[in-house]
Amino acid sequence: MYFDNNAAAMCSYGGRKTGAALAYQQFVNHKALTNVVITFHRKRCATGRPMHIKHALLGLSLVGLLAAAGCTTTDGMSSGRMAPVSAYAAVKDEGVDLPRVPINEVDDKYRRQIVDYKTDEKPGTIVVDTKERLLYYVLEDGKAVRYGVGVGRDGFRWSGTAYIGRRAEWPTWYPPAAMVKRQPELKEFAGGMDAGIMNPLGARALYLYRNGNDTLYRIHGNPNWTSIGQSVSSGCIRMINQDIIDLYARVDPDKRTKVVVLPG
Predict the structure, then answer these.
(1) Which residue in the list 11, 41, 55, 236 is annotated as catalytic?
(2) Residue 69: is it exposed, middle or buried by C-beta count within 10 angstroms (0-12/13-18/19+)?
(3) Could you tell me the pTM of the whole model?
(4) 84: Cα within 13 Å, side-chain hemisphere
(5) What are 76-122's pLDDT values in tens digits?
(6) Long-range contacts (CB closer than 8 Å, 24 or more residues apart) made by 38-44
(7) Within a domain: residue 55?
(8) 11 among known catalytic residues
(9) Does 3 map to a domain?
């Protein structure tokens, strides 16, 4: 479980269109893409700065692939619906040099992709399948964006319903007291570990709340892509940094996003 008491870096909608918006509009003319809800063209940070074009392209790379392939089949596991290798390329994000992930070395099951997904949950809901080590962001028309994740090891897993109470880009990590007690070597970070590629929270963090209270669980990035598909965390849901950036951009900060964590 990770706890970060820094203020979240919230974003809002509205404002002029960025270059990413124009690129996005070229894609949305394709009928098969109408169920892919990506609002890069409207997203601006609270500072008033347009969203960085490289951030937008991480998500748009998947959209572009769909447009090129046509993707009119219903085979959710089709390789034509996977994010391309370029979606995991090295990128400078908020001044941080994010390294490339050798995604071809990751099981295709855990690679970001559009899949058929039957659920009673509304579009915009996040569903974590702990047993399968998969996270789904529910779209319209029986589809979802699926990501591979790492989950809590035995004794640290949890399940239930929560919501995203706040968000942060490149958050500071504060190891909780219980973790420091188990791992005394973390004592030097009791005052916080600065953001960076070795920070356990990675590039983004989505903070899970229940009834107005912080659960201390997060959905977050992480510097170790080989942990995806494994049970290694202290209860949080960890993702490849490029994937958490993509998911973070999809989550509407102006709405209460429901998160369902299924039993493992």
Answers:
(1) 236
(2) middle
(3) 0.69
(4) 14
(5) 334 348 999 999 999 999 999 999 999 999 999 999 999 999 999 99
(6) 38/63, 38/249, 38/250, 39/13, 39/252, 40/249, 41/17, 42/13, 42/14, 42/15, 42/17, 43/11, 43/13, 43/249, 44/11, 44/12, 44/13, 44/14, 44/15
(7) yes
(8) no
(9) no
Contact 134, 149 (CB under 8 A): yes
Domain encompassing residue 25: 11-262
- Backbone φ and ψ of 126, nearest 5°: -105, 130
**Active site includes 236?**
yes
pLDDT in tens, 29-47: 333 333 333 333 333 333 3
Q: Is residue 40 included in any domain, yes or no?
A: yes
List 11, 41, 55, 220, catalytic entry: 220
Confidence of residue 58 (pLDDT cuts 50, 70, 90): very low
Chain-centre distance for alpha carbon 204? 7
**DSSP code at position 221:** -
Tokens representing 103 are 């995604």
The residue written with tokens 């998969």 in the block is 134
For residue 145, what are its two tokens? Answer: 């964006």
**CATH number of the structural domain spanning residue 87:** 2.40.440.10
